[in-house]
């Protein structure tokens, strides 16, 4: 009898991280616990990929700051790290492309490990033979909150083929609150329903609603945000004077990059 | 000209079993709120873990709860943990704990008052609590009326709730609390955060991660001492909460006696 093999999983979270909070970090912990509890997965890495400035979201501060704050927040984690590739691209990058980029890097890294001792010919054959096997025992999954899942329904926010690629070829881990119903949303979408086996819903029984919006609001008002995000991140924010009324007005008149791209809308 | 502010110390009593980020948030929120009234200057915060004789189910040894609170508060420059209550031989009524701390605060203040020549406002001590605390006043046998009066009338409460109106309703529904409503400060926490020590213990029992819910140093301590197992949660399972027994037998004198 063939024993079932455990699939290695890398979790990828895309987002503004403006700023990163303890809630973002919790998502990784919850996702890992959930997936490993099924007995089918071993989560080996977590990647946080802050969006580039070209996303043009209101209140989005410079990527260099968001990267550094995320790096500080992940310092105490031995498996979650920050990646700057997406934020360094000149234009906004669709999430599906970010997923593709990281998956290809993962595959290449796995094959480099295999390649070390083989001669060129054997190496080429093994790549061809193992190509399918690699995808079975190593998966990249997009980690997100219920709001991202539901954003699949916002017109012109996502290309249908991108959604298909993310949930069809890879996987989605969606952290949801006790009061929202992602299953219903999946049920109501033919595309999502088709790939429902690749969508892992993680119920967060203990609501931990630390939104970055709330954190920015508190900072503007001079209120304490201690214990909502790591002390090192708070220190960085204070040191650089980030998050003021001015910073919140950034991109106020600009159209969000995905909407601009898919509808041909132009900024004012 | 800036109005003079009353120096204020916030005292939080509780199990702290274990202390979590949410407990520490209470202090931050309360301080911001009391400052914004323009009448107070928060000068200190005290975490006072309850003694083992409280008899609550799942309560681990006070020495651990105090140690964990110390670790959690290491990085705070205004909140400290105090073990007086936890070291008393029997469970101590909240008002007694408050009287003890107020006495100390007053002494310290009088010692240093010579240096502050323009502030002659006496310091105050208020009890910091969550919204569920107000509901405990309704539990028969848990509180004496004269203690509630001393707590809210003489000292005062700073009650942090998660945006719901339940604490205001609890005050409204009690004549005693309603009479003293000017001394009950309601602080709203708009971030919905249901992290509780109960949930943390549950997660630990199940081998699930509690990272980012409490400081790393506290998590390490818990693992090092193997606290919070199925066995620890069964502790005191059939015991009656000590206050219910004690107050039925020999009531503590009220402040007027």
Describe this structure in words.
- The complex is a heterodimer of chains A (268) and B (257).
- With 268 residues, chain A is of the alpha/beta class.
- Chain A has one domain (7-112, 136-264): HUPs (Rossmann fold).
- Chain A is 49% helix and 16% strand.
- Chain A has a six-stranded parallel sheet with strand order 3-2-1-4-5-6.
- In chain A, helix 4 crosses helix 5 and helix 4 runs parallel beside helix 7 (160-170).
- The longest helix of chain A has 21 residues, at 95-115.
- Chain A starts with 6 loop residues before the first strand and ends in a 5-residue tail after the last helix.
- The model of chain A is unreliable at 129-134 (pLDDT under 50).
- Chain B has 257 residues and is of the alpha/beta class.
- Chain B has a single domain, classed as Rossmann fold, CATH 3.40.50.620.
- Chain B is built from twelve helices and six strands.
- Chain B has a six-stranded parallel sheet, with helices on both faces.
- In chain B, strand 2 (40-49), helix 2 (62-73) and strand 3 (79-81) form a beta-alpha-beta unit.
- In chain B, helix 2 packs antiparallel against helix 10.
Summarize the structure.
The complex is a heterodimer of chains A (268) and B (257). By secondary structure, chain A is α/β, with parallel strands linked by helices. Chain A has helices at residues 22-37, 63-74, 85-88, 95-115, 120-137, 146-151, 160-170, 182-187, 190-194, 212-220, 231-240, 245-249, 257-263; strands spanning 7-15, 41-50, 80-82, 138-145, 172-177, 199-204.
Largest sheet of chain B: 6 strands, parallel
**Spans of at least 5 consecutive residues with low confidence of chain A:** 129-134
- Topology, number of strands of chain B: 6
| Distance between the first and last residues' Cα of chain A | 65 Å
Number of strands of chain A: 6
CATH topology of chain B: Rossmann fold
Strand content range of chain B:
15-25%
Structure annotation, total helices of chain B = 12
Mean pLDDT of chain B: 89
Element order of chain B: H for helix, E for strand: EHEHEHHEHHEHHEHHHH
CATH class of chain A: Alpha Beta
Report low-confidence residues of chain B grouped into runs of 5 or more.
none
Kindly name the structural category of chain A.
alpha/beta
């Amino acid at each position: 009898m063939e024993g079932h093999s455990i699939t290695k999983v890398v979790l990828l979270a895309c987002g503004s991280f403006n700023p990163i909070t303890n809630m973002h970090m919790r998502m990784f912990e919850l996702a890992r616990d959930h997936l490993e509890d099924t007995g089918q997965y071993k989560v080996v890495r977590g990647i946080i990929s802050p969006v580039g400035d070209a996303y043009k979201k209101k209140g989005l501060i410079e990527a260099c700051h968001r990267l550094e704050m995320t790096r500080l927040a992940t310092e105490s984690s031995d498996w979650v790290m920050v990646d700057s590739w997406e934020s360094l691209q000149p234009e906004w990058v669709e999430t599906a492309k970010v997923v593709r980029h990281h998956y290809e890097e993962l595959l290449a890294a796995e094959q480099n490990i295999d390649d070390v001792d083989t001669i060129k010919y054997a190496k080429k054959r093994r790549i061809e033979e193992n190509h399918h096997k690699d995808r079975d025992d190593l998966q990249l999954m997009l980690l997100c909150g219920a709001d991202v899942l539901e954003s699949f329904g916002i017109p012109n926010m996502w290309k249908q083929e991108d959604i298909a690629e993310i949930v069809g070829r890879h996987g989605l881990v969606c952290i949801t609150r006790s009061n929202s119903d992602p299953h219903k949303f999946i049920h109501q979408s033919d595309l999502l329903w088709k790939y429902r086996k690749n969508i892992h819903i993680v119920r967060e029984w203990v609501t931990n609603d630390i939104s970055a919006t709330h954190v920015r609001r508190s900072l503007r008002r001079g209120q304490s945000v201690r214990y909502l995000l790591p002390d090192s991140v708070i220190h960085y924010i204070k040191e650089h004077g980030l998050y003021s009324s001015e910073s919140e007005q950034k991109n106020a008149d600009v159209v969000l990059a995905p909407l601009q791209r898919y509808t041909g809308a132009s900024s004012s | 000209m800036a109005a003079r502010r009353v120096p204020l110390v916030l005292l939080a009593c509780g199990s702290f079993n274990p202390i979590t980020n949410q407990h520490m948030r209470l202090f931050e929120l309360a301080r911001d709120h009391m400052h914004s009234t323009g009448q107070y200057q928060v000068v200190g915060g005290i975490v006072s873990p309850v003694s083992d004789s409280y008899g609550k189910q799942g309560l681990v040894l006070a020495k651990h709860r105090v140690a964990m609170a110390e670790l959690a508060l290491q990085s705070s420059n205004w909140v400290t943990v105090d073990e007086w209550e936890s070291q008393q031989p029997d469970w101590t009524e909240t008002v007694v704990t408050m009287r003890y701390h107020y006495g100390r605060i007053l002494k310290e203040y009088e010692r240093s008052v010579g240096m502050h020549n323009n502030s002659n406002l006496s310091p105050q001590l208020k009890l910091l609590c969550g919204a569920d605390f107000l509901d405990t006043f309704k539990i028969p046998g848990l509180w004496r009326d004269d203690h509630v009066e001393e707590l809210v009338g003489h000292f005062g409460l700073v009650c942090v709730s998660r945006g719901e109106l339940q604490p205001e309703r609890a005050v409204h529904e009690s004549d005693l609390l309603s009479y003293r409503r000017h001394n009950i400060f309601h602080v709203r926490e708009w971030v919905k955060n249901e992290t509780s020590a109960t949930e943390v213990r549950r997660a630990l029992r199940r081998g699930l991660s509690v990272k980012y819910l409490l400081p790393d140093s506290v998590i390490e301590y818990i693992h090092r001492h193997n606290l919070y197992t199925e066995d620890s949660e069964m502790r005191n399972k059939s015991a009656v909460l000590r206050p219910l027994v004690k107050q039925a037998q020999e009531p503590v004198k009220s402040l007027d006696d």
